[in-house]
Specification:
By secondary structure, the chain is mostly helical. Helices cover 62% and strands 2% of the residues.
């Protein structure tokens, strides 16, 4: 009887141990050395092997070769005999199997990478585009350009392959082939411009081709009557051209409707990217450092469109990028008396310029000082120097430009600051107002 009791007690004790929940134990799984990229030391998702026999993750090693410009193996330092990495399917399969085995520890199976676009594939697509444009097949060309755009977006490697096999040249020639005067061609022309934007920046051959009169007229046509996305892509291409070849500026301005199309993108903005590109394109046309025939006439045309007033309005509340470019354009417009007259007549000009001093970036400060200096000289020439000085002093300009002498700025800016201090100091006793918020949390090395 005692034995039976002991057996029952032992059974109850065993059941308690069996039903007792054991505490969770965290198990740390170490990724095998073979599966880790030597550059990032992380699990490889697309292993590729270089000519030295070392395997890396594609994204990391392509950044090493193409973005950093290295031609050596990251591990051995040996010069590579080929810059094209070869997919390592064996290692990739081993990594996928290992991920499946360790799924319970949070390792998801890496997907099998898509085969990167090959030179042969690109050449075949381009050959079809050439054949279709010869037959006037607008829809076929449009479909193939969309395919090229999709391939470019896959990876940086795909983009390099597509660019190196002559895509910019074929797209440029196709842009010239289809006449912008035919309304049916507008859609394919917009698609071609969209294709050109995804392969920026252009090489010299592409830029030279796009500077042809036919191409420029097509770009201006899209800027004028194209869809919102078409106008956006057109100005992105145009910005790239204007920023790299200043010898062609006058040729562009002679195209009917070119200036009006650019100004319209500022007066009726589409999106921040388009606004930034439009401002930069106009800046290259009106910047004081740029010189070409009929430049003053060009600036006058912009002024007549109300660009000065629009820029001042934009500067009241805008992003840093827009602020820098808008001030650059405004400085260019103020390079002639008519531009100064319009800026001086706007009640917001001086308060906005003073507000931008020491608040956005060094370049905005230099642009603002330059415009204030020009306005001061202009006011003196028409006998209204006191008006500008008092208006600037009322919004705290004297304290800000005095501070500029103590912080880093260009010698030209400091010379203009000294001129402004001399001119405004004569009127300082008449009015004084400091906007304390402009100096709050100011972090400058003195």
């Amino acid at each position: 009887m005692i034995s039976a009791y002991r057996n029952r007690r032992a059974e109850r004790h065993a059941n308690k141990i069996k039903n007792k929940k054991l505490p969770d134990v965290e198990v740390e799984v170490t990724v095998p050395e073979l599966f880790r990229c030597p550059i990032s030391l992380e699990l490889m998702r697309d292993p590729v092997t270089l000519s030295t026999g070392i395997t890396y993750d594609r994204e990391n090693v392509e950044r090493w070769i193409y973005e950093d410009g290295k031609n050596t193996c990251p591990v051995t330092g040996v010069v590579l005999t080929s810059l094209e990495p070869v997919p390592n399917h064996t290692i990739r399969k081993m990594i996928q199997d290992w991920c499946v085995e360790n799924k319970s520890y949070g390792f998801d199976r890496i997907p099998t990478p898509r085969a990167p676009v090959s030179s042969g594939q690109v050449v075949r697509i381009l050959s079809k585009i050439v054949a279709m444009r010869g037959n006037g097949n607008v829809d076929g060309v449009k479909e193939l350009v969309v395919k090229i755009k999709d391939l470019v977006k896959e990876s940086e490697r795909s983009k390099r392959c597509i660019v190196s096999n002559g895509t910019p040249r074929v797209l440029r020639e196709t842009l010239e082939t289809f006449s912008y005067e035919n309304q049916e061609n507008i859609l394919v022309l917009e698609e071609i411009l969209s294709g050109l934007t995804v392969i920026l920046p252009f090489d010299q051959e592409t830029k030279s081709g796009l500077w042809s009169n036919q191409s420029l007229r097509t770009i201006v046509k899209i800027l004028t009557v194209g869809s919102l996305s078409g106008r956006r892509n057109a100005v992105l291409v145009l910005k790239e051209l204007l920023s790299t070849d200043q010898t062609k500026l006058e040729e562009f301005t002679m195209i009917e409707g070119s200036m009006e199309a650019l100004a319209k993108l500022i007066m009726e903005p589409i999106d921040p990217t388009t606004t930034n590109a439009s401002l930069l394109a106009i800046y290259h046309l009106v910047a004081p450092s740029i010189s070409f025939n009929q430049k003053e006439t060009l600036i006058t045309r912009f002024l007549e469109m109300g660009l000065t007033e629009r820029l001042v309005e934009m500067l009241v509340d805008c992003t840093r990028g827009v602020c820098e470019k808008a001030l650059g354009v405004l400085e260019g417009l103020c390079s002639i008396d008519e531009g100064l007259k319009r800026a001086y007549a706007n009640a917001l000009t001086i308060p906005v310029l003073v507000k931008k001093l020491l608040r956005v970036s060094d370049i905005t400060t230099e642009f603002s000082v330059s415009i204030l200096w020009k306005l001061s000289k202009y006011a003196k020439s028409i006998g209204e120097e006191e008006g500008v000085a008092i208006e600037a002093l009322q919004v705290g300009a004297f304290q800000k430009i005095l501070l500029l002498l103590q912080v880093g700025s260009s010698s030209k800016t400091k010379e203009r600051v000294c001129d402004l201090l001399k001119d405004w100091n004569l009127h300082r006793g008449k009015v004084e107002c400091i906007e304390s918020m402009d100096f709050k949390n100011l972090n400058r090395p003195f």
